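For the sake of transparency, this paper describes our internal protein records without simplification. The record that follows is passed on verbatim for readers who wish to inspect the format:
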Amino acid sequence: MMFSKKRGPIYLQIKEAIKDRILSDAYPVGQNIPTEGLLVEEFGASKITIRRAVEELANEGYLHKQSGKGTKVISNKPFSKLSKGQNFTEYLKDAGFEVTKELLSVQLMHLKEGDKLFAYFGKACYEAKRCFKLDGKPYIYFKHYFPAWIEFNNKTWNDQSSLYLFMAEKGIDFHSFTDEFDVELNPEQACEVLEMDLKPMLKRIRTSFDEMNRCVEYAEAFYDTSLHRYVVKLEI
């Protein structure tokens, strides 16, 4: 495998190569990645370069370095590096709930200056609307927006699979995100999808960026907290 300094620091290129293998299950969760010596031989890099790449992935939550036991893969989720918090959907499943997803629509939107999304995506973006159900009852109404340069439609993405893993497979590297919360009246479509009357409800706004600080997702979600509160579970 060849690397070039023209594409940035070598350790970052090696880090991305290892991460791609983690996300694709070439390095499965629960198993060790190859030893430092084998990685040095494969990538033709120094021990210091390999160690830095591995340390980056450990700091981001993908790997765990075990003294005398090697380095184990502990997560293959694209958002691992962003937080030690458990994914909310996983939390619900662990709590015994059945969580299902329904893709309501996908469309390419044309934007103009002055539109809220223009500052994030320029002249065009994709919009995907989804409904999450909790034990068969409508629970979350999602509106996701993505850059137009991502090939995104209901044929390229299985709506029951992880949206973020799908985007990672498209080469989207999530570097950071911001979550904001508010309480506001649910819009008309949210009322229809969630089968509820107009009333104040929890709204979450997520803005996600890649390593070049480009916005790769803007999302708004409305939660029927009468079914279940929104929970953030952190491991110390």
Summary: Helices lie at 10-23, 36-43, 47-59, 88-94, 118-121, 163-169, 188-194. The beta strands are 63-66, 70-73, 99-110, 124-134, 137-147, 174-185, 200-210, 215-223. The chain has seven helices and eight strands.
